[in-house]
């Protein structure tokens, strides 16, 4: 696949010279990405789709500061006006240095590397909240919305009604209908167990927002790059640590690797002080968010965006598995490996 139609304009704005090779990267879930080989080197070109361009600019400038501290992050390319985003009509593009490496799902990692991964996330949280990043100091505790079960039940009924009208449902449609019925039963059973406070417990501050194996590059046993900094935002640290562990160490069968969760959290807590009670709060909040947020179906049916369809079934299997073993999951997060 060729690059975007405006590639010549982008190469001139980013001052990379003549483009010799363009390869589309099919693995991106939210954005279009290309590997670009040009006179000035090899780069990753991104068409920004899921964040406002001004926010992308702020995050890319933060990335430049992080790279100077030794954080394994690619360096953004800038225009002559020091702009890391080039706008072409309604589209926006960023360009960062290319880093060779491979993505490694968490269940493939030996425990020593799992612990190192957790320590790196802790280090990122610590560095992101230094003044050198240019991000403003965080003072107020971030509020955490707690979705009412009635709202999600209404969504479920809406999707089920839509699915019932399909003359020739696909395999995804059939799977969605089955999992929606299961989700409805879970919600009705556990509606009273949602978090009661809108104030999450534990430390908070600027976070990466999507730290997981699709955004981490390895060379052998070394992490050489953390990618996709589009979602830098203030969050509870526990929220990102728990989310990372469930994405990184949950298999397609929906089962969470408890041993690796414990090793990951050991590494994280070697850098960030977070208590067992604060971690339990984070685990409970993420469980409820998964229970009440059928976001893949919103993408698929409301936005006609099928890029995340493959995530749906594993997420639903994990929700069922997790709900049956909530105490066991909490124990994995607060245990010492």
TrEMBL record:
Pfam families, alphabetized: APH
Gene Ontology molecular function terms on file: transferase activity
Residue ranges of every copy of the Aminoglycoside phosphotransferase domain listed in the record: 25-268
Domain of life: Bacteria
Gene3D superfamilies, per the entry: 3.90.1200.10, Phosphorylase Kinase, domain 1
Keyword Transcription among record annotations: no
Entry keyword set: Transferase
InterPro entries: AGP_Transferase, Aminoglycoside_PTrfase, Kinase-like_dom_sf
Keyword Transferase: yes
PANTHER family: AMINOGLYCOSIDE PHOSPHOTRANSFERASE-RELATED-RELATED
Protein name: Phosphotransferase
Species of provenance: Kitasatospora acidiphila
Lineage, opening ranks: Bacteria, Bacillati, Actinomycetota, Actinomycetes, Kitasatosporales
